[in-house]
Specification:
The complex is a heterodimer. Chain A is mainly beta. Chain A has one domain: Porin. In chain A, 13% of the residues lie in helices and 61% in strands. The two termini of chain B are 41 Å apart. In chain B, strand 9 and strand 10 form a beta hairpin. Chain B contains ten helices and 15 strands. Chain B has three domains: 189 residues, no CATH class; 45 residues, no CATH class; 249 residues, Beta Barrel (Porin). The chains are: A mainly beta, B alpha+beta.
């Protein structure tokens, strides 16, 4: 319940502040006279398949992002992104009843290859992940190179702050007016522990409101 | 991570590349020179007085040399003289669209592939490995998937590799874009992408985050500095030996630019120089002298523990913060290089340039400006090791106190993306004996300047590095204080003295803390080339 409350608060405050910004600021047309690109508000749902040692404990994740993209001519946006991601335990570890959720605070950019109704893009985001977990694990590599995973389910609530890094390829499709669909495949290489980076492929689907369009 | 790919390999790679490049360039130049000479000869045969050209048309007066060796100075804008004499401006193609005026994506991508393939091929096929399993270039689909699955780590390479070889490679990746029509920011993406591709797919090892940051960010800094220096050195309107030497010099500074000038035919073509080829002003100084420093940092017996070594320092100040458009990246920068007679030879390399900035106050006798700079730091001497990759917001002020005397102050917050400083208890099997981590610090500098000399200068910096590489149970507080003075003897010659100290306080969770202090003393002669 707490998680859903956090998601709703994040979504609501972000959208509200964006709305306030819209009301306050005079309407500025993009300097370059771009056809479809402009400042953007993006709301996106996501699903993650994890990789590597992280996957041996947490198999998948789901959540959402809200981001604001500031347009720079000719094909770029500077993006500020906040979100919430909830990870799922491996099935055979379900009995531990553990939880791990992450609030990513990311900044980065998108490069749109073309400014048309179909706009493929590349993006790079980085920043910090605020991680909350009730179980922890470490990977020990023995002399033969074997990796042993040790799970600690006695630590209670623990909060970590770690560097987060993400690249993505995606496409934004203009539907009507300023409304766009956004599809993206992302690769995450977030820091967690030295031998267990939080890596994974992330699939995102969202809506984009192009401001001033 | 480039294991065993040390400076020696880098040097060999560069030597081969330069050799090929210079051979191609000399051939091309001699060919184009022959072509130019023929053209000039044909043209001059039409002129009764048989006069040949020797200097660039950017000079106000072009110098004409006759066969008898007599030199004349004429104004090329004088129509009467233009009619009478053939001048160089006649053969300059003023309508020429330069190579860098358009983006060449596929050529840039091919060059990136070549730049990465050379060290890869040398390791895979050109190196004898005692244990073939150590060959990091034996990449496969399996190693690629493992790298993608397991993600980042911190590597164990030597300091020189991580803080010199990687930034140098980053400079090449950056210039793949920069010399193919991409601007500063777009070329930064080339540096980041090139480094990422190398880390994930060029080696069998897991990608190293320290390499990615150092190669990208320090590569951008070095790349833009070398791009501008190369552009400054080459002169599109020069001819003859002057042109040949300038093209070779420019290509040595920036091989990618040299190569692209070669394939585009610009190496031997006469066309106008770009408007921003040179900054409005620049200063080059060199100083040489003796440095004495405490090598073990115990700090209690300097007389016995110090070592003395010869030190040669080259400084280049490109542009002037107070006179340039500081919103344009690297419209001003400083490059500083110090070579020592001891070991290691490359004892210091620093570069920083403005990213963007704005004036807060701009009065005749007092100016204040805010500027953010991109900083690359490499310190490696027997008493002190520090590597840094930072963005530094600075408040810089200038107070005029005389006709040519001023006080300059500089206060900065050092936002360190990746810092490195020694760990007293740890040595990685691959040789790393220092920690990596982000950090924060302050930079304070004040100087009294007269013309080109720093009569008195005080520099103090302090940084905290929070270790992220394994073992990640430490943090370091490092300081540098240096007070120096210069006494001008002649217009371009001064003697100087400097005294200061490096401190390092390292705090360990599992071991006793360590405090080191390395006093340092310098005496030197300094000369300057001022334009």
């Amino acid at each position: 319940m707490k998680k859903y409350a956090i998601i709703i608060i994040i979504l609501f405050t972000s959208l509200l502040s964006a709305q306030v910004m819209q009301n306050k600021e005079p309407v500025d047309l993009p300097a370059s006279g771009s056809k479809f690109l402009s400042d953007q508000i993006i709301v996106q749902g996501l699903y993650i398949r994890t990789l590597g040692n992280f996957n041996k404990v947490w198999t998948s994740g789901s959540g959402g992002y809200v981001s604001y993209g500031m347009f720079f001519p000719d094909h770029n946006t500077l993006n500020f992104q906040i979100g919430y991601i909830d990870y799922e335990l491996q099935e055979d570890l379900d009995s531990l009843n553990g939880s791990l959720y992450v609030i990513p605070l990311l900044i980065g950019g998108k490069y749109f290859f073309i400014d048309s109704r179909f706009m493929p893009y590349f993006s790079f985001m980085n920043g910090i992940n605020i991680i909350n977990q009730t179980i922890s694990f470490e990977v020990e590599v023995d002399a033969d190179g074997n990796e042993n995973i040790h799970i600690d389910d006695t630590l209670g609530d623990e909060t970590l702050v770690r560097y987060a890094w993400q690249v993505a390829m995606g496409i934004m499709i203009n539907v009507v007016g300023g409304l766009n669909l956004d599809l993206a495949v992302k690769y995450n290489a977030h820091f967690y522990h030295a031998e267990a980076m939080n890596t994974g492929f992330e699939y995102g689907f969202g809506l984009v409101w192009s401001l001033n369009k | 991570m480039i294991i065993n790919f040390t400076f020696k390999h880098l040097y060999r790679t560069c030597s081969y590349s330069y050799l090929i490049l210079i051979s191609l360039m000399l051939t091309s130049l001699s060919w184009s020179q022959t072509r130019n000479d023929n053209a000039v000869e044909k043209q001059s045969q039409k002129n009764s007085n048989q006069i040949f050209l020797s200097l660039s048309s950017t000079n106000k007066y072009s110098e004409l040399k006759s066969n008898s060796g007599i030199s004349l100075a004429i104004d090329p804008n004088n129509p009467a003289l233009k009619e009478k004499y053939f001048t160089l401006t006649d053969s300059i193609d003023v309508d020429y669209e330069t190579w860098e005026s358009k983006k060449h994506f596929w050529i840039a991508a091919s060059e990136l592939a070549i730049v990465q393939f050379i060290p890869f091929a040398m390791a895979k096929w050109g190196t004898t490995w005692d244990d073939p399993a150590d060959n990091w270039a034996n990449v496969s689909l399996e190693s690629w998937w493992r790298n993608i699955s397991y993600g980042w780590e911190y590597d164990g390479d030597a300091f020189l590799t991580n803080y010199f070889a990687h930034p140098y490679h980053g400079n090449l990746y950056f210039n793949v874009g920069r010399t193919n029509g991409y601007n500063f920011w777009e070329s930064s993406a080339w540096a980041a992408t090139g480094s990422m591709l190398w880390e994930y797919f060029g080696e069998t090892f897991r990608p190293a985050i320290n390499d990615w940051v150092n190669t990208t960010i320090n590569g951008i800094t070095l790349g833009e500095v070398l791009y501008r220096l190369s552009a400054m050195l080459t002169d599109n309107t020069a001819t003859g030996t002057n042109r040949v030497l300038r093209e070779i010099g420019g290509a040595l500074l920036n091989p990618l630019r040299g190569f692209n000038r070669l394939i585009s035919g610009e190496t031997g073509k006469l066309f106008p120089n770009p408007e921003d080829r040179k900054s409005k002003e620049y200063l080059v100084t060199v100083n040489a002298g003796i440095r004495s420093l405490d090598k073990d940092g115990e700090g209690d017996n300097f007389a016995k523990e110090h070592i003395e070594e010869g030190l040669f320092v080259f400084d280049m100040f490109y542009g002037n913060l107070f006179n340039e458009n500081i919103k344009k990246p690297f419209s001003t920068f400083q490059l500083s290089l110090a070579l020592s007679s001891g070991s290691p030879s490359l004892t210091r390399l620093q570069a920083y340039g403005n990213l963007f900035g704005r004036y807060l106050m701009n009065r005749k006798n007092m100016q204040h400006l805010l500027v953010a700079t991109l900083d690359y730091n490499y310190f490696n001497n027997p008493g002190f090791i520090y590597g840094g990759t930072s963005v530094v917001p600075r408040l810089v002020s200038r107070f005029l106190i005389g006709e040519s005397t001023r006080i300059i102050t500089n206060v900065g917050i050092d936002l360190i993306a990746m810092g490195a400083t020694p760990n007293d208890y740890f040595t990685d099997p691959e040789g790393r004996n220092y920690d990596f981590g982000p950090g924060i610090g302050i930079i304070l500098r004040a100087s009294i300047q007269n013309n080109i000399w720093d009569l008195v200068e005080i520099v103090y910096t302090s940084k905290w590095i929070y270790t992220q590489s394994e073992p990640a149970s430490s943090r370091h507080n490092i300081h540098l204080l240096m007070i120096s003075g210069q006494l001008p003897i002649r217009k371009y010659f001064a003697i100087g003295i400097g005294i200061g100290a490096y401190w390092r306080n390292s705090y360990y969770e599992d071991f006793p803390d360590v405090f080191r202090k390395n006093p340092v003393f310098r005496i030197f002669f300094k000369t300057a080339l001022h334009y």
